[in-house]
Amino acid sequence: MIKDKSMVIENTLTGFRKLIIYQKSKNLVLSIYKATKTFPKGELFGLVSQMRRASVSVTANIVEGYSKNSSKEYVHYLTISIGSITELEFLLEISKDLGFIDSETFDNINNELYSIKKMLYGTRKKVRLNI
Fold first, then answer.
1. Number of structural domains in the chain
2. CATH number of the domain bearing residue 115
3. Which of 3, 96, 108, 120 sits at a 20 to 30 Å CA gap from 26?
């Protein structure tokens, strides 16, 4: 029996901040915003907007899925995050090919992406086992 229901509610409300996958994906958002500051103004509504939205989507779906009442829903939102991070991976590649980001920035962000993508797949697999 749960002795302190307020403790459970508090953990549900703020617990996502303790997730390493949340912390890393939030840092990825910051990296993407910083990297896209130097893109040409003509890309503000193109690559810049798309990359920023995709990076935010990764983190937002982790948080939203975590707050749901079922493992099945959490898996659904993790799957959306995987789609968003894969989209971001492609957009990052295009940005490098077009010369909008240098190799060092690309490598750093790509390493972040890879780490988070592995965590997303691992978390989804773990949550699926609990369904």
1. 1
2. 1.20.1440.60
3. 96
Return d(Cα 82, Cα 58) in angstroms, integer. 7
| Closest-CA residue to 31 (of 124, 74, 95, 98) | 95
Indicate the length of the chain as a whole number: 131
Average pLDDT of the chain is: 90
Q: What is the DSSP letter of 4?
A: -
Residue 92 resides in a domain: yes
Flag whether pLDDT at 5 surpasses 70. Answer: no
Run of H or E residues at 116: helix 103-129
Per-residue three-class SS string for 12-54: HHHHHHHCHHHHHHHHHHHHHHHHHCCCCHHHHHHHHHHHHHH
- pLDDT exceeds 50 at position 9: no
d(Cα 131, Cα 119) in Å, to the nearest integer? 19
What average pLDDT does this structure show over 63-80? 94
Degrees, nearest 5: CA angle 40-46-48: 65
**Distance between CA 32 and CA 91 in Å, rounded?**
11
Q: Containing domain of residue 50, as a range?
A: 37-129
